[in-house]
Amino acid sequence: MTSSPTFDNLKAAIANASSLAELERVEQELYSRKHGAITQAMKRLGTLSPEERAKEGKALNAVKQDFTRLLEERKGALGAAALGSLAETDGIDVTLTLPEREHGHLHLIPEFIRQVEEVFGRMGFEVAEGPEVETEDNNFNLLNVPETHPARDAQDTFWIAEDSLPAHRSPATRDEGEPPGGRYVLRTHTSPVQVRYMQDHKPPLRIICPGKVYRKDADATHSPMFHQFEGLMIGKDVSLANMKAVMVTAIRELISPKAEFRFRTGFFPFVEPGLEVDMKWQGEEGQSREGKWLEIVGCGLVHPNVLRNCGIDPKEWQGFAFGFGIERMIMIKHQIPDIRALYNGDLRFLRQF
């Protein structure tokens, strides 16, 4: 095996190679899938008896290691020669240390969304998406939000004038068979994604819905446009205990393993019972929020009316839903006092993370 004329010729070819391209051709002659000398020798092992195969296999392995060493040594020699030639020809100092180039990284918001998707993905949740311009039905009616609810007021919600919509989105030109959706609105939460998903899929369901949402709020802790991620889990016997386990696990991974939680009752039209979750924790320096409770999420068991509106029998299926503000979570995690710092593109701020 080791004295094969073919192998001897290839060793000589490696030693005599005058360029990296020529050396690569020799390497192809050794390892190409169809005609490589090593490849063919490996195939021949299969035709030998077990005793011969063990002996020849050991010898072939030694040959492969020898060729690997020869190739690496010749590559190193040719590479060093090429650099020396370049330096002599162009006067380039190959030992010169160039200034370090600054590398970019993800903004805090998409970076956090990726972390959310990874954490919930490990718990079996799919990622669902939907349009940011929604129908009144999907944004309010099918979610059991009454017509008198203050969220529908123009002071809280961005309503879309029909004459500003593209022709294919206008109620007057709605596709045949498409249910009426009333007026259009910039979605105030990502809950319409849950509605669309429940209408198109049969339970059991397990999804999260990250995305932009819009409300008429603007101050140090609120923005007219911000990001949410909501979660939905529907099953035969899904309970509040399941919801608590999922949320506690996720928040401790996303914010801090030292987080403590407090669950208290709250009202949301689309869940019953509804809960609000408060959190406090001590950061690395023991000063995060000074140990104060901070509300971070609204949640609860999906209201039977919502399930019924989406074609799911509430007598057979039940589940939970929750919603987090992404900017709020980031501000808590990194102790950022003003939400506007996330949007103004100041590199002095962004380089900290």
Give me a quick take on this structure.
The protein has 353 residues and is of the alpha+beta class.
Number of helices: 11
Describe the global form. Answer: elongated
| Distance separating the two termini | 58 Å
Helical/strand content category? alpha+beta
Q: What share of residues are in beta strands?
A: 15-25%
Report on this model:
It is elongated, with a radius of gyration of 32 Å. The strands form two sheets. It has a seven-stranded mixed sheet with strand order 1-5-6-10-9-8-7, sandwiched between helices. Strands 2-4-3 form a three-stranded antiparallel sheet. The protein folds into two domains: 5-90; 108-133 and 187-350, 2-Layer Sandwich (BirA Bifunctional Protein, domain 2), CATH 3.30.930. It has helices spanning 5-16, 20-31, 37-45, 50-90, 108-121, 136-139, 191-200, 240-254, 304-309, 326-334, 347-350; strands spanning 126-127, 133-135, 159-160, 184-186, 205-214, 225-235, 260-265, 271-280, 294-302, 318-325. It is of the alpha+beta class and 353 residues long. Strand 7 and strand 8 (271-280) form a beta hairpin. Helix content is 39%, strand content 18%. The protein is built from eleven helices and ten strands.
